[in-house]
Design a protein that fits this description.
It is globular, with a radius of gyration of 19 Å. Helices cover about 35% and strands about 15% of the residues. The chain is built from 10 helices and 10 strands. The protein has helices at about 20-25, 30-40, 100-115, 125-135, 140-150, 155-160, 210-215, 230-240, 255-270, 275-285; strands spanning about 10-15, 50, 60, 85, 90, 95, 120, 170-175, 195-200, 240-245. Strands 2-1-7-8-9-10 form a 6-stranded parallel beta sheet, sandwiched between helices. It has a two-stranded antiparallel sheet with strand order 3-4. A two-stranded antiparallel sheet has the order 5-6. With about 290 residues, the chain is of the alpha/beta class. Helix 2 (about 30-40) crosses helix 9 (about 255-270). The longest helix has 15 residues, at about 100-115. Mean pLDDT is about 85; it is low at about 220-230, about 230-240 and about 270-290.
Length: about 290
């Protein structure tokens, strides 16, 4: 993971049934905004702000897409899809299959393309982004070790040899917490990495309760050295949650893009982000729903 010049690299993790290429096309507004707004941190060069879009390893079918309608095609016609997943849910056990393969691909990407300053994820990719942030934290491997002794998930093999520093930030769009207790070590104790959560008020794919369950597992920008009290901790959690008046997608309105770039730039500079839900809510709710 050699780096010749200062660079901000952001890992972009797509959602279920998407691909890196599709996620790139759906996040162009975010990419352009971040390249413009973050370039002053790396000498004013937009080329020094790089977003990397890997594609998950598990192929799924188009029928797995939420809201999918079967087309009127010949039954003999082979299905051509570019739909991928980081894991699949076993609805009987509520556990994930193929998860190690997804984590291994992320680890290989981080090894080959990193180091990364942070991660942005959408839907399943946002759930994964929170997991990756957790895995890279100091002491998390030991937490997994203790948990696995009592039946929890073991620390992923692909991350045991990964030489990558903890991430400085995570952006979660329509993210959620893994529901099974098998994955408790990702979230207990709470994730320390600063995470900014976006929740769509009209999201019918990821229910708000699933996203807020993830929020509750995130410590945010707590004062680790001095120790934050319960009241300030709750305040920090609240200001990391942005509701937008839309559904299951990345919102691209300028005020929301500014929230993201402000959050990233200030976490990179190790200062407390200014953008809070109180400061942005008026602008956000006044917007037209973008569909």
């Amino acid at each position: 993971m050699a780096e010749d010049a200062p660079m901000i690299k952001i890992l972009m993790l797509h959602g279920f049934t998407q691909s890196g290429t599709l996620f790139h096309s759906k996040s162009r507004a975010l990419e352009k905004h971040l390249q413009r707004s973050l370039s002053p941190l790396v000498g004013g060069r937009q080329s020094s702000v790089k977003l990397v879009y890997p594609t998950a390893p598990t192929r799924v079918s188009s029928s797995d897409i939420p809201g999918y309608v079967q087309p009127t095609t010949s039954p003999d016609e082979p299905e051509q899809t570019d739909c991928w997943a980081w894991w699949r849910m076993d609805l009987t056990t509520m556990t994930y299959t193929n998860m190690e393969e997804g984590l291994e691909l992320v680890a290989k990407t981080m090894e080959a393309e990193g180091p990364f300053s942070g991660v942005v994820g959408f839907s399943q990719g946002a759930a994964l982004a929170a997991m990756v942030s957790s895995l890279l934290e100091v002491g998390r491997a030991e937490i997994f070790g203790a948990g696995s002794a009592s039946g929890g998930m073991s620390y992923p093999e692909s991350f045991k040899t990964l030489a990558h520093p903890p991430l400085k930030f995570c952006i979660s769009y329509s993210g959620f917490k893994a529901p099974h207790s098998l994955y408790a070590a990702f979230y207990e104790p709470p994730i320390e990495t600063p995470i900014l959560h976006f929740i769509g008020s009209l999201d019918t794919v990821v229910d708000e309760s699933r996203s807020t369950a993830l929020v509750e597992c995130c410590k945010g920008l707590s004062n680790r050295a001095n120790g934050a009290n319960d009241e300030s901790e709750n305040s920090l959690r609240q200001e990391r949650v942005i509701y937008h008046p839309g559904g299951h997608f990345l919102p691209s309105q300028k005020p929301l893009l500014n929230v993201v770039s402000n959050f990233i730039s200030e976490t990179l500079q190790s200062t407390k982000p200014k953008a809070s839900i109180d400061e942005t809510e008026d602008d956000v709710t006044a917007m037209d729903v973008p569909f």
